[in-house]
Amino acid sequence: MRVIKRYRIHAGTFAWILHRLSGLGLIFYLLLHIWVISHLSGGEESFDGIMHFFGGPLFKLAEIGLVGVIFYHMFNGLRITLIDMGVMVERQKMLFVIAVAVWLACWGASGAVMISRMISATG
Amino acid sequence: MAMITFRINRYNPDDERRGHYVQEYQLDVEKGTTLLDALNEIKWKQDGTLTFRRSCRSGICGSCAMTINGVNNLACETQVLGLGNSTVTVEPMRGYPVIKDLVVSLDPLVRGILAVKPYMITHSPPPSDQERLQSPEEREKIDGLYECILCGSCTSSCPSFWADKEYIGPHAFLKAYRFIADSRDEGSREHLEALDDRHGLWRCHTIFNCVEACPKDLNPTKAISELKKELVRRKLG
Ligand code: HEM
Ligand code: SF4
Ligand code: FES
């Protein structure tokens, strides 16, 4: 028998989908991170080699993206925790707006710092 | 009066070859006509094979929940002209297996509700000459909980339920909390028993579709928060 699995999207849908994607992204990053660090056991040359590979500007930009993913997961994770504790359950959309505002503010600030460091390092 | 086109999702289990299809009906609708009135008109005057559930036609039995223009609602509480469209799309409630036309199987809904023992449980003997009394303040604590008519709109809309057919479901969580919050009930442990489970509370991802979907404006997610807190309190306390 057919079952339709779909419903009109709203703030809660976005929060959830983004949370899952960011969680999976973080797992991917963590595995990558462990793999990179594991080059330490191959001696100085091996570690320097991999660090050089990930030292390029493309990966510096990706790092800014990573910071965004971490901040989203963190602030929406706190939103979920508050809801689970019964705080602002009836105003969850407002809580999502607050989480997004704090997320973008923190991401913007750290992104600006990271970009200015990139510029001063190259120039 | 306005001519409205009803696009109705249809399915006849005796005609598997045809499968699911959309059929259109036209009806002149006047102010005050509910979607249930319109469906009745179509069934009585145009097409007797159109199948849907209804009983009370006053928003109290929960039989007529369906997906109307993509949103779960009670047909008998939906003003057709209030929808503001000249075309109204009517689908069987999502998430449940379709039996025929707009009729879905509510077996998952029943399984979930029975899991939480949805009735008053008492252990102490009742007062000898009267009912178990409740103060107005105690009674107020079940506002926003007792109004549930078990229409199934909430659980129908829930992605956790789509992913797990044995998920107990927001309708049952709300009902469990309705009894736990009731000052006369002494069976909190019994109501909570089934909830601390992989098909229970912990599968809620706070997506809030249940809150969006409830035609009675109830808040199952709030009940879920209270139940989570209660379970944690019992584990730690
Ligand atoms: C920064 C602090 C963090 C907070 C506050 C946080 C919070 C949360 C919360 C509340 C959930 C449950 C979401 C739900 O019920 O749907 C969750 C899920 C998850 N988290 Fe985190 N988390 C954090 C860090 C991390 C890290 C470092 C990783 C990865 C290495 C991670 C990976 C995941 C994954 C994969 C999920 C499952 C996503 C889902 O169920 O949709 N989290 N997190
Ligand atoms: S909580 Fe609302 S949507 Fe869910 S069964 Fe009860 S009345 Fe229907
Ligand atoms: S017919 Fe009873 S709720 Fe609509």
Number of domains of chain B: 2
How many helices of chain A? The count is 4
Radius of gyration over C-alpha positions of chain B, nearest whole angstrom: 20 Å
The major pleated sheet of chain B works out as: 5 strands, mixed
* Head-to-tail CA distance between termini of chain A: 65 Å
Overall pLDDT score of chain A:
93
Q: What is the global morphology of chain B?
A: elongated
Q: Which kinds of small molecule does this entry bind, naming each only once? A: protoporphyrin IX containing FE, iron/sulfur cluster, FE2/S2 (inorganic) cluster
**CATH class value of the largest domain in chain B:** Mainly Alpha
Looking at the structure, what is the overall shape of chain A?
extended
**Weakly predicted, low-confidence segments of chain A:** none
Poorly predicted runs of 5 or more residues of chain B: none
What characterizes the major β-sheet of chain A?
Answer: none
**CATH-derived topology of the largest domain in chain B:** Fumarate Reductase Iron-sulfur Protein, Chain B, domain 2
SS-based class of chain B: alpha+beta
Strand order of the largest sheet of chain B: 2-1-5-3-4
